[in-house]
Amino acid sequence: KLDSDLESLKSRCEKILCMLIVKAKIRDVAGELSVASDFADALNQKVEQLVQDACKRAAANSRRTVMAKDL
Questions:
Q1: Which of 1, 22, 33, 37 has the fewest CB atoms in 10 Å of its CB?
Q2: Dihedral, CA atoms, 70, 26, 37, 50, nearest 10 degrees?
Q3: What pTM does this model have?
Q4: Which residues of 4-41 are buried (b: 16+ CB within 10 A; e: fewer)?
Q5: SS (H, E, C) 12-36
Q6: 35-42: long-range contacts, CB 8 A cutoff, minimum separation 24
Q7: Low pLDDT (below 50) residues in the chain
Q8: How many whole angstroms separate alpha carbon 53 and alpha carbon 42?
């Protein structure tokens, strides 16, 4: 049962991952610098991979909660 619950949790984590980055917030943080059109997509891919890895780590540790320590 725990294995199927963890697999379900991993699946939900993967489905949630779409566009995690808010482009307007990137521009806010960048300040006066211009932000290239491909920057948000590249950043989103990196963040998505971080979240996927964190989900896998939580599942591997038999937890249903992804925590900061999973990063």
A1: 1
A2: 0
A3: 0.69
A4: eebeebbeebeeeeeeebeeeeeeeeeeeeeeeeeebe
A5: HHHHHCCCCCCHHHHHHHHCCCCCC
A6: none
A7: none
A8: 17
